[in-house]
């Protein structure tokens, strides 16, 4: 992550098992700053507990971990500092937690976007791209897909840089040399 080039916020999006978390982790570790993970997932079953344990083992003990399944904006404000780089993994689980708790996804997403500009240090967000598949067959899944797409757009607009990871390969979407407006 090139803070010297003005990039203080990065959104890494991609499908399931695309390599987005690995890309984000490597970017954080290359920054030279103290890495802080804000984990939004909760171990509500054995399979999720195993996933969390595997991610912890991959990161290593030099990472500081903060669990924030819902209060993401507050956790970001507390963790961000000039000497740290914060990795939020992931917005998809945070949104799921928020929707299951009855929260207002649009308002909370905008609040999170507003927080990004106030942070004292760099941040990397990881989020799933869920709009590239079929339209779900039930209302809850359609509501989630819509909310995830809107959240990704909101956070992408607030971040300095956006990278799409597919099959482990990063593609920079923002900033782009081709970002001239189309009239």
TrEMBL record:
It catalyses: adenosylcob(III)inamide + GTP = adenosylcob(III)inamide phosphate + GDP + H(+); adenosylcob(III)inamide + ATP = adenosylcob(III)inamide phosphate + ADP + H(+); adenosylcob(III)inamide phosphate + GTP + H(+) = adenosylcob(III)inamide-GDP + diphosphate. CDD domains: CobU. Its EC number is 2.7.1.156, 2.7.7.62. Gene3D superfamilies: P-loop containing nucleotide triphosphate hydrolases. GTP binds at residues 14-21, 39-41, 67, 89. GO terms for biological process: cobalamin biosynthetic process. It is an enzyme of class 2 (transferase). Keywords: ATP-binding, Cobalamin biosynthesis, GTP-binding, Kinase, Nucleotide-binding, Nucleotidyltransferase, Transferase. Pfam families: CobU. The active site is at residue 55. InterPro entries: CobU/CobP (IPR003203), P-loop_NTPase (IPR027417). Catalyzes ATP-dependent phosphorylation of adenosylcobinamide and addition of GMP to adenosylcobinamide phosphate. NCBIfam families: PRK05800.1 (NF004469). This is Bifunctional adenosylcobalamin biosynthesis protein. The lineage of its organism: Bacteria, Pseudomonadati, Pseudomonadota, Alphaproteobacteria, Hyphomicrobiales.
């Amino acid at each position: 992550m090139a803070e010297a080039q003005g990039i203080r916020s990065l959104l890494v999006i991609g499908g399931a098992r695309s390599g987005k978390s690995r890309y984000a982790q490597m970017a954080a570790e290359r920054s030279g700053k103290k890495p802080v993970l804000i984990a939004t997932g909760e171990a509500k079953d054995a399979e999720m507990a195993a996933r969390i344990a595997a991610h912890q083992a991959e990161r290593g003990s030099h990472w500081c971990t903060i669990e924030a399944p819902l209060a993401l904006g507050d956790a970001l404000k507390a963790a961000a500092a000039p000497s740290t780089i914060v990795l939020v993994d992931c917005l998809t689980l945070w949104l799921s937690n928020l929707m299951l708790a009855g929260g207002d996804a649009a308002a909370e997403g905008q609040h999170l976007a507003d927080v990004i500009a106030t942070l004292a240090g760099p941040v990397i967000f990881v989020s799933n791209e869920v709009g590239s598949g079929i339209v779900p067959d039930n209302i809850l899944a359609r509501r989630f897909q819509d909310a995830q797409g809107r959240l990704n757009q909101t956070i992408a607009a607030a971040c300095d840089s956006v990278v799409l990871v597919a099959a482990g390969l990063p593609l920079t979407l923002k900033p782009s040399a081709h970002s001239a407006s189309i009239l």
